[in-house]
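Saturday, quiet lab. Running sequence design on the structure tokens for the scaffold JK sent over.
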């Protein structure tokens, strides 16, 4: 209480401010990192290195080298040019001396000189473009070199140049890499969090890799093998949680970021191959018999991430995939083979779909109510009490559904919930429902509670 004769001052309201329009202003390292966009994937080509494709001697590397000679006069890059120019007069010469050129190029990149790294990394991407499949023998060492450079360097520009270079390499060599992504995923796993990394390194590594996983999904209608092998490898890494030790949470975060980025599209939408990729992930999780809990954790994380990044209309294709998977797992004809682990996955998935963002990504609740009733009946047929996840989902679904969709399903759902064997969870259900919507509880659920 203020002293007598003195008036209390009003609290100051923090000003939100406006974004500065000045080109030259101080920004912290984290602010600059957050603004980076490593996405050359949506560009059809690098316009600064166009060549005459009708000329059999034309080279992307030679064109890029000539351009950078005039733009970068640093001592480090000038020394590089003196060594590599005699070996790169034409494409045939570059192909002949490719081992010498990559040795010189990686040696200068490895020195980490900030003044020369932009042209050197640009030239590395152009060199890979020239060599195409011949670059395969240099690929693994190059990826490790670039990613290590980005992970350890303190300059934001170097980090951006490095991951842009990596993304261009993935794009140029996608036909070579997509048929089997497991070797590349193994090479990239330390930078996805399997070893201690900074968060931005994991984020950029996941964004770069997501392009190739998406490519594997795009050819799924022709061959299932590339995508299924990639998903199988990711889930097998998840199964090794005990061996990963303290790095497991960070690595799981990197894998979830990779999958979310591969599925999402632009403008809060889903990529055209997103439903195929998500369905493959669901199958992989349902088929897993080892460390199922950890696989569910990854599935839940991916689903939550996609819910946050989409709208109700754009999330609909993924919702249909999830509900179809739940229906297949609980199909009446397959009840004898429907494992307890599969039911747990279905119930936790339905819980995530219906509770995250308060169910705002669901347009038609009738299909959600149908999935809920199906799961409750499967539990009843197997003489098993509903899990907490299913009870939580039931409460949220029934309080969020429009009444015109809920009323036809109310009696069969409640008859299943209040069965004698379910009395313990029924009280949990009633308590949660009353907290969420007391008015609807009093009108719809209280009569069952008082019986």
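Result came back. Writing it out in full:
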């Amino acid at each position: 209480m203020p002293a007598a004769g003195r008036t209390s001052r009003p609290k100051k309201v923090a000003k939100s401010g406006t974004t500065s329009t000045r080109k030259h202003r101080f920004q912290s390292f984290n602010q600059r990192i957050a603004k980076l966009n490593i996405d050359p994937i949506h560009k059809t080509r690098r316009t600064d290195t166009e060549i005459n494709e009708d000329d059999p001697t034309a080279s992307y590397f030679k064109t890029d080298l000539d351009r950078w000679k005039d733009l970068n006069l640093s001592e480090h890059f000038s020394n590089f040019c003196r060594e590599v120019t005699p070996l790169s007069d034409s494409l045939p010469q570059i192909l002949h001396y490719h081992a010498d050129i990559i040795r010189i190029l990686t040696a200068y990149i490895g020195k980490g000189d900030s003044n020369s790294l932009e042209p050197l990394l640009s030239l590395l991407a152009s060199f890979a473009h020239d060599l195409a499949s011949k670059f395969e023998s240099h690929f693994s060492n190059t990826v490790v070199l670039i990613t290590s450079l980005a992970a350890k360097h303190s300059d934001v520009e170097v980090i951006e140049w490095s991951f842009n270079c990596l993304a261009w390499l993935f794009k140029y060599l996608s036909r070579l890499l997509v048929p089997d992504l497991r070797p590349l995923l193994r090479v990239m796993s330390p930078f996805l969090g399997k070893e201690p990394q900074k968060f931005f390194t994991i984020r950029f590594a996941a964004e770069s890799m997501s392009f190739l996983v998406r490519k594997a999904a795009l050819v799924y209608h022709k061959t299932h093998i590339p995508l299924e092998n990639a998903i199988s490898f990711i889930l097998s890494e998840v199964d090794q949680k005990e061996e990963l030790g303290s790095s497991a949470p960070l690595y799981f975060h990197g894998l979830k970021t990779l999958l979310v980025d591969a599925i999402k599209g632009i403008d809060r939408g889903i990529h055209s191959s997103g439903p195929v990729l998500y369905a493959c992930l669901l199958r992989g999780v349902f088929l897993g018999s080892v460390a199922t809990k950890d696989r569910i954790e990854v599935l839940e994380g991916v689903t939550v991430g996609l819910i946050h990044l989409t709208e109700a209309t754009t999330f609909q294709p993924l919702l249909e995939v999830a509900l179809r998977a739940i229906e297949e797992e609980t199909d009446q004809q397959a009840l004898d083979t429907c494992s307890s682990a599969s039911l747990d996955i279905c119930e936790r998935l339905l819980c995530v779909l219906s509770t995250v963002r308060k169910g705002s990504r669901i347009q038609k609740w009738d299909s959600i109510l149908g999935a809920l009733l199906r799961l409750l009946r499967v539990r009843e047929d197997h003489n098993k009490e509903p899990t907490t996840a299913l009870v939580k989902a039931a409460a949220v679904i029934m309080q969020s559904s429009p009444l015109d969709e809920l009323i036809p399903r109310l009696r069969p759902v409640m008859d299943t919930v209040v069965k004698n064997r379910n009395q313990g969870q029924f009280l949990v259900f009633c308590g949660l429902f009353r907290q969420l919507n007391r008015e609807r509880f009093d009108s719809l659920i209280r009569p069952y509670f008082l019986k």
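Notes for JK: The CA atoms of residues 163 and 204 lie 7 Å apart. DSSP finds 23 helices and no strands in the chain. Ask whether to fix the surface positions before the next round.
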